[in-house]
């Protein structure tokens, strides 16, 4: 899949949930309900399951999906074509992770997305934040970390829709992108994980996707 011209740096390796684990079972459950086509139902917390665990499994899944979607258009998202990380003319994002880069910096979209995906991957790989073993409790700050991850992943969708949708259509990927984004939005709405203001760059699309499903 990865062509020579493509920056393999931005295209992160898929994060796998270990087979046989409870999280793997949850992921399979999510995939099965998604297959039914009812996305509102697919995002609901399965009966008797732990909310943190459900959010963790889905966050990993969204990271993998967005990673793959962005991977298909990296050759169109360059320092020259996207000198700033934006979602249309009204929204521009500056990067800070609070540890290595404390003061937000202005950078190109590919650079920003590379920082973002690397940062997300580091959080997902941190066993103290995203425990993969059964019985290991989630930390007290888990929900706020998950919210930050999802808020930042949303920005990649927003950038793709605003700056690269023509490329997505040329690649005939729009159905895949729309389904992935709709799943993401229904999930964050179900558990109130992203502030409405953060969703503003794609508000019209969100309303359109939601109204089709009522």
From TrEMBL:
One of its GO terms (molecular function) is kinase activity. It comes from the Eukaryota. Zn(2+) binds at residues 77, 82, 159, 164. Gene3D superfamilies: MOB kinase activator (1.20.140.30). Keywords: Kinase, Metal-binding, Transferase, Zinc. Coiled coil: none annotated. InterPro entries: MOB_kinase_act_fam, MOB_kinase_act_sf. PANTHER family: MPS ONE BINDER KINASE ACTIVATOR-LIKE MOB. This is MOB1A kinase. It comes from Ciconia maguari.
